[in-house]
Amino acid sequence: MTIDLNADVGEGYGAWPAPADSDLFPLISSASIACGFHAGDPGRMRETAALAARHAVVVGAHPGYPDLLGFGRRELGASPREVADYVAYQVGAMLACASAAGTRVRYVKPHGALYNRAARDSEIARAIAEGIRAADPGLALLGLAGSALIAAARDAGLRAVSEAFLDRGYQRDGSLVPRGSPTALLADPQAAAARAVRLVREGTIDAVDGTVLRVEAESLCVHGDGARAVAVLQAVRARFAADAIAVAPFIR
């Protein structure tokens, strides 16, 4: 059995380094790199893409709202036209930075508030797909399993790749628990590892109210900015090794 492990990386800015990117790369197979709007800058984008290439990790673009102060986690209420332009702009920049690093972008995963809005708002999901197609129609779109984002990707003729989260709480409708809630984050590495094995083997996950959700995912995400991201991924890799589950990119 094989599964992709992805993390959001390159999320420093200027003089502020990304928390643990150098420790994350040996543990993941796909890297969603911040594109400068919610975090990241041109030099860090190029450097992070080069780091991915050294570790044979697939590069993805991670566009968000233009919200450095809020780390892209504030809902800005941008129009669909604005969202499509934001995405095309950031993906285009990431394509150039990856090329400068001797690698290439293979997929796009929206960030933060933009991701959560697109999961439920079909119009915004379509705008994201439009922005991706404008930059490179050969890119895949990585999004929350069962969400409007996955449907929009398929409707736009993009490869749709579903993901599940190892370090986030789920609501009974399959959406993520809003940050700020006591049940939003799952910080226990062993609990995350057990969740990962269950997702691969059974395709199920428990919502915070105990509802068992059916989740078909090609990729499992750990937030790279999380305080225990490295410990979570180490625990996951150890459990995968014990359970004969291989880690490989969802796209080659």
Descriptive labels:
252 residues; 38% helix; 18% strand; two-stranded antiparallel ribbon; 7-stranded parallel barrel; TIM Barrel; alpha/beta; 10 strands
- Overall 3D shape: globular
Any idea what the CATH superfamily is called? Glycoside hydrolase/deacetylase
The end-to-end distance, rounded to whole angstroms, is 17 Å
Low-confidence stretches: none
Helix tally?
8
| CATH architecture classification name | Alpha-Beta Barrel
Strand content: 15-25%
The CATH class label is Alpha Beta
Task: Round the Cα radius of gyration to an integer and report it.
Answer: 16 Å
Spatial ordering of strands, largest sheet:
1-2-3-4-5-6-9
| CATH fold label | TIM Barrel
The residue-averaged pLDDT reads 96
Kindly describe this structure.
This protein is of the alpha/beta class and about 250 residues long. It has a single domain, classed as Alpha-Beta Barrel (TIM Barrel), CATH 3.20.20.370. It contains eight helices and ten strands. It has helices spanning about 20-25, 40-55, 80-100, 110-120, 120-135, 150-155, 190-200, 230-240; strands spanning about 1-10, 30-35, 60, 105-110, 140-145, 160-165, 205, 210-215, 220, 245. The strands form two sheets. Strands 1-2-3-4-5-6-9 form a seven-stranded parallel β-barrel, surrounded by five helices. A two-stranded antiparallel sheet has the order 7-8. α3 (about 80-100) packs parallel to α5 (about 120-135). The radius of gyration is 16 Å and the shape is globular. The model has no long low-confidence stretch (mean pLDDT about 95).
